[in-house]
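Subject: Nuclear transport factor 2 family protein

B.,
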Amino acid sequence: MGTAFDTETLRRGIEGHDAKALLSLYADDAEIRVVDRNTQPSHPMVMHGQGEISKMLDDVYSREMTHKLEECVVQGDKVAFTESCEYPDGVRVLATSMASLKDGKIIEHTLVQAWDE
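Prediction pasted inline below.
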């Protein structure tokens, strides 16, 4: 049996704007696929490895906004979670994620996000 996924680090990282803590949850060769209004399913934004993932996490979690982990479910080698965010002007973002795990680390992560229009 592999190492358990650290849901408390996920919560602390998201709600504490701690990109470094979040990065620690990813395997060195992890991949994130982002689908949203600008990067639609046929052409998602894909980041490979901790270097590219780190840049995205640093950008997102350095923004002036709130982040809240709404739900998180871990089952076997999968984790699913929902994050709600709000900018100071009231614009909200909802992101839902499904990820595959290996030895307690994320190896593949699909993130679907939507903003208030």
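Residues 49-62 form the longest helix (14 residues).

T.
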